[in-house]
Design brief:
By secondary structure, the chain is α/β, with parallel strands linked by helices. Helix content is 49%, strand content 14%. It has a single domain, classed as 3-Layer(aba) Sandwich (Rossmann fold), CATH 3.40.50. It has a six-stranded parallel β-sheet, sandwiched between helices. The radius of gyration is 16 Å and the shape is globular.
């Protein structure tokens, strides 16, 4: 449905960080049907298993969007569905979260490996560190980090680690190039996890898709600046004539 948007969250922090954005979208446009959906809870680290679960669960013929890992999965699902996806909206989502030889604007592989090891050894301490990294660059990073950590759901260790492995494996460049529907990719200028330079790299890769940068914002800009992000998303949807 052209006026329906499905939004997927990022790794580890659950649905809570996106609730203010969903509320802002509904407040700005009551006709837009916005649906926040959890990520799969799977012990499998195979992205295809995650995409199969999402494809079976999520409605067809609607907009797909997501924050960070959620945006990467939305991109892959949009490419899989093709004309059965109205369009794609990603928020602080890199084409590859972990750096590769031909995609350097990402987290270094050694840093990610250390982070994953920490998650296996002490999940709560690692999640707290992750919350603070998400908030780094915000106007009030400590308060935002505490809010992110406080809202994080309890999750089995196998699911957390599988999610990290999916995050490390995904490379959405081919999917983004294959999807012919409208796309908007928003980045945060002070993001400590997804370098803002990735916005320019993505624009060079994709050419005529829309991208934008939220100034002076953290990776958690969905929670930090929900009304500004919602306004940008709705402006794009109106530009392409879908609301």
């Amino acid at each position: 449905m052209r006026d329906r948007l499905i939004v997927l969250p990022g790794w580890g922090l659950g649905l809570a960080p996106l609730q203010p954005l969903i509320a802002a979208l509904r407040g700005l446009d009551p006709h837009l049907q916005v649906q926040l959906e959890p990520l799969p809870e799977l012990a499998s680290a195979a992205p295809q298993d995650w995409l199969d679960e999402l494809d079976a669960r999520l409605p067809q013929d609607c907009w797909l969007g997501g924050w960070s890992l959620g945006g990467m999965l939305a991109a892959e699902l949009a490419a899989r569905r093709g004309e059965r996806c109205r369009g794609l909206l990603t928020l602080a989502s890199n084409a590859s979260f972990v750096g590769r030889e031909d995609w350097a604007t990402a987290m270094p592989a050694a840093t990610f490996s250390d982070f994953r090891g920490g998650c296996g050894a002490d999940a709560q301490a690692t999640l707290k560190r992750f919350s603070l990294l998400c908030a780094q660059g915000a106007a009030e990073p400590r308060a935002l980090g505490r809010l992110l950590f406080a809202g994080a759901p309890v999750q089995e260790a196998a699911y957390r680690l599988a999610g990290l492995d999916v995050l490390a494996t995904l490379d959405t460049r081919a999917a983004l190039q294959a999807f012919n529907g409208p796309q908007l990719h928003l980045f945060a200028a002070a993001d400590a996890l997804v370098p803002v330079a990735a916005a320019g790299e993505l624009q060079s890769l994709l050419g005529d898709v829309e991208s934008g940068v939220i100034d002076a914002a953290s990776h958690a800009f969905v929670l930090e600046r929900p009304h500004e992000v919602a306004a940008a998303l709705l402006a794009f949807l109106r530009e392409v004539g879908d609301v």
